[in-house]
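Minutes, project check-in
Item: structure for the 318-residue chain
Input as provided by the requester:
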Amino acid sequence: MADTSETDWQSGDRSGLVSIGTHKLFAKTAGPARKAGDPLVVVVTGWGSSINSWPSVLRGCSCFARIMAYDRTGLGKSEKAPSPSPRTGEAIAEELSALLKAMHLEPPYVLVAQSYGGVLARLFLAQRPNDVVGLCLLDTNQERTYIERRIDDELLGVMLDGINYYEVSGMKKSHKLSDEEWETMVNGDGDDGEYAGLEKVDYRSSADALAAHKQFDNQILGNYPVSVVRGNTIRELNAVLEAATEKGNGTEDQRAQVSRLFGLFDVLEEKLQREQLRLSSQSRYLFAENSGHNVQVYEPDLVVDEIKWILHSQPKPS
């Protein structure tokens, strides 16, 4: 890729690899030329995910706001680190700071996060509490997700054996990407899953680090706007269980165990998502009934509308 050291990331549609000192991360920006003081919308993807599921949101948001999306170390088009390093949420948040600095993208920032990206975005907020002026949380994990909403990955793997998740879940039929974008999202950029695995190893410690900040109790964002969007993930999970039952995956006892776990999931998820409203005195909650876990794929227009609400709901200077 071309050298981006002299790129003006504040205007035009830009993309490329950006050096953060040790290695390079892939980033792209789009939207109207940014003026001093304008919030920059920053996308924080989910666990082990690249930005390949976000093009519809980038397109929609770029009509009215400057937006930046990037691939974390070892994911998508970004380089791997030259030597093994912790993939804790705190380290990832520090990398995002380094990337923004290298791109000369100053605050303020509005963070748009999905799934595990919610933990990462809020750790960035903990490190830079004066630089974030809004959060859009899309079916995000929070500090207590791993404690309360436990789903046995090994058991879920048994259920998914030989099943095409994209087809069974309904995502293939209902996504709002172009055909080319869909193929890119499904097939990825050729990464081998190594860094997704490294992120998973440090998931619990990252959640614990976030819990230590007590952001709910401290209402860390004051009156800056927070949008919490809950996806209809249980619909996808029930579709997987139905397909697994038809295929005969697992034992009857295993399927019954998964059914019980899924039955608890919806109630716990509602509670965990609503808890995040406590991050600000100005917050709102939406249930994206027509989505699954990846709201940005199913209902990008809803995400764009929530970003617009955040930008239009900035507190007036006192």
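Outcome recorded: Strands lie at 14-19, 24-30, 40-44, 67-70, 109-114, 132-138, 226-231, 283-288.
No further action items on this chain.
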